[in-house]
Amino acid sequence: MKERPINIGYSTCPNDTFIFCQLARQPDVATHLHDVETLNRWAFEEKLDVTKLSFHAWLLVRDKYELLPCGAALGRGCGPLVIGKQGAQGVGAQQGAHLRKCAVPGEYTTAHLLLRLWNPGIEQRVFMPFDRIMDAVAVGEVDAGVIIHEGRFVYRERGFECLQDLGEWWESTTGQPIPLGCIAAKKSLGADRIAEIARRLKESIQAAFDDPASTEQYVRRHAQELSGEVTMKHIKTYVNDFTLDLGEEGRAAIEVLQRMAKDAGIID
């Protein structure tokens, strides 16, 4: 009897399409591309066998999904940014004292978790798709917004300034690289199946590193309006050695995030 396809979910962001490109071409794989907050919410219902998740979401479903040792977006100099209009009062030194209403790219994103750890006193957190946030800040719908993905490469030309680099805050506070996103597999698949999927994903990542040109068409197809330059910056920012293997340093960073989230009462 033929096994059913492996249902794998990931985002259209260049770092995800880059690492999944080779795996997506395999005949027993069914891909589901959605924004990461949709994937985060689907994980609570265990809709997918294997899925991209924000680390915030994974901490909440870790009883159902096993973290894979590869595929993570984790590193230094790649954290979410809190941005405001040019000339907005700086907030970093006073833990965001002037921030009342802030746009956030999803309730279960790591960006939201980091914002709460950095400044638990923000009165209103408004959840919206990540690509709407700069517009919301521009028209004054919110005081500030947390931007992720390619937003960090274009916010200045859009007329905004960085009020707080949450990655910089995290690194200076913990000394750890910042865990942003991961790939996890449903525990009910069993240890052997999960190990096989992890192996195949690592091979897909290595193939992308070895021959980036082989991923170009697939990445561009899903990159929407991103320029080639921004697409490459995106991949170089979020895909690194941790993507191939979390290693001891990566796992230590995740443990710190889990402990801080628990101490803050955000997770159990």
Report a brief summary of the structure.
The chain is an alpha/beta fold. It has helices spanning 14-24, 36-44, 55-61, 110-118, 133-138, 151-154, 166-174, 191-210, 216-222, 228-238, 241-244, 247-263; strands at residues 6-10, 29-33, 50-54, 65-67, 73-75, 81-85, 101-104, 124-127, 144-147, 160-165, 178-186.
| The CATH architecture of the largest domain | 3-Layer(aba) Sandwich
CATH superfamily assignment of the largest domain? Periplasmic binding protein-like II
Look at the structure and give the mean pLDDT: 93
CATH class of the largest domain: Alpha Beta
Structural class: alpha/beta
Summed up, the domain count is 2
The stretches of 5 or more residues where confidence is low (pLDDT under 50) are: 91-95
Strand % is 15-25%
Instruction: Describe the global form.
Output: globular
What would you report as the Rg, rounded to the nearest angstrom? 18 Å
Number of strands: 11
What CATH calls the topology of the largest domain is: D-Maltodextrin-Binding Protein, domain 2
Order of SSEs, N→C? EHEHEHEEEEHEHEHEHEHHHHH
Major sheet summary line: 6 strands, mixed
Helical residue percent band: 40-55%
Count the helices. How many? 12
Tell me about this structure.
The chain is of the alpha/beta class. It has 12 helices and 11 strands. It is globular, with a radius of gyration of 18 Å.
